[in-house]
Amino acid sequence: MAVFPLALLMAAACATAPPAPPPAEPPPPPPAAVTPAAFVQTQVARLQPLVVASHHAWWEASTTGTDQAFARQKQTEDAVDRFYSDPALFEQVKAYRQDAQVTDLVVKRQFEVLYRSMLGKQVAPELLEKITTLRAEVTQTFNTYRGKIDGKEVTQNEVMKALRTSTDSQELQAAWEAQKGVGALVAPKLAELAALRNQVAQRLGFRDFYALRIAENEQDETKVLALFDQLDALTRDHFARHKSIVDQRLSKRLGIRTTDLMPWHYQNPFFQDPPAVFETGLDEVYKQQDTLAICRSFFSSIGLETAAILDRSDLYEKQGKSPHAFCANMDREGDVRVLANIVPGLQWQSTMVHELGHGVYESYVDSSLPWLLRTRTHAITTEGFAMMLDRLTANPYWAEAVGAIDATKRDQAMDEARAYLAFAPLQFSRWAQVMLRFERAMYADPKQDLNTLWWDLVQRYQSLRRPPGRNAPDYASKIHLVIVPVYYHNYMLGDLFGAQLHETLAALEHKDPVAAVYFGHPQVGDFLKSKVFASGALYRWDELIVQATGKELSAAAFARRFDKP
């Protein structure tokens, strides 16, 4: 699974429940002579320095971890929130957005972007304050929770290590239950949080919070659900076939029958990442390589330069620094950078290709666009592109192309790599089905039996056995329900876009999609720059996908990956 940028997670969390800002002075009504273009330009002149300042404060906090830096981050983010939550400004933006006389595409699009950025914040500050406080309390619970194994407190890293390395079923169950234990602490507050979020949505005229978040994402709920239904129909049998292979390998490793496999046997608390049963040997290969040299070589070979990005980046571990990886467009004026903690190996090779994918996307947006539009159009497009690239690192054809292995090792690794490259996206797609359908049902009725709902979905989509007699809020042990609500589906839609885009790019190389790894094909970069990157946020995400691939988004290209045994 792709490493998701911390920036994206933070942005989604903030968009949902910002700190309640102090009252702001309303902007004066625009004079009658002020044109829509002039009005939006004036507002951007107010917003731009606030956003840039918040990005720099956030970068400092992420790279130093000092209390002073985090205090500056909060101050600058509060200033941005004061702008977005201004009710008088929102009414003006909404009026311009609905004005039929505003016909210029670029101007109309800027009002659309502003409107969707402000929509979820047009609620009484005291309600937002309740949400912010509750979310912070739950987040702190996650951060401080320590499960217990045999009466001893254990960290999350220790839980994950036990799940990956132990072959004793009792130990594995204890580790799995230790992770799930946080759910009982979180569940009551998550239910309260869901109810408060629904209040926000309903005061804004939406059915519930799920519907609000879909609208903020510029998506149609019916179409999103139809895509996930199509994905389920096209991949259900493929998943069952590949999971049976994984089950057989785990059964052999653990010395138990496949019919006795339980959720704690799959090496991940949520069965969202593949267990270590695929022996490609590529991790050891990348441990012997220069991670950045491979990245530079690959991107340069397709006509996408990364030198300026890497020069500004912070790439190695140090005290106080965030342990995550993310890419940040600091100012939409060319300052794009990556935060990482590189340790040579497959994981960080994949992560750096992913984050630099975000980086080149942002870097090649047309600089003549207005500031509001000078960024990616949606998480779907940037995540889809970055995920498409990071999959390449597990492909022996790519490893050979970048000089990490020779043809002999390529052929030796190919069968296992194909198995991994098939199972990993299938597995994540089933997990995404659970998340999408659970959140939609939870916000529709937060008081229903969520314990049963969760396991019904896990059984149906992930084919995991429900532990006999278990009745616990296991869903509440997933932190994303708190900090990035109604967002997971975007990662899956991004993967669908990535598959569709990959088929388009493979045609440029005149290769089978399995063998197409782009290296040495500058026409790939030319296509990406002109068809995907340049237009920034000028077009809706679904319009951009049609322009780039010639087709509306569907699950067909994703499913075609698995047609060959």
Question: Please, could you describe this protein's structure?
Answer:
There is one protein chain. This protein has 24 helices and four strands. With 565 residues, the protein is mainly alpha-helical. It folds into two domains: 19-120; 135-145 and 181-267 and 280-565, Orthogonal Bundle (Neurolysin, domain 3), CATH 1.10.1370.30. Strands 1-2 form a two-stranded antiparallel sheet. Helix 18 packs antiparallel against helix 19 (450-462).
Report low-confidence residues grouped into runs of 5 or more: 1-24
What gyration radius follows from the Cα positions, in whole Å? Answer: 24 Å
Shape assignment:
globular
CATH-defined fold name of the largest domain = Neurolysin, domain 3
Output the structural class: mainly alpha
What is the terminal-to-terminal distance? 21 Å
A few lines on this structure:
By secondary structure, the chain is mostly helical. 62% of the residues lie in helices and 2% in strands. It folds into 2 domains: 19-120; 135-145 and 181-267 and 280-565, Neurolysin, domain 3 (Orthogonal Bundle), CATH 1.10.1370.
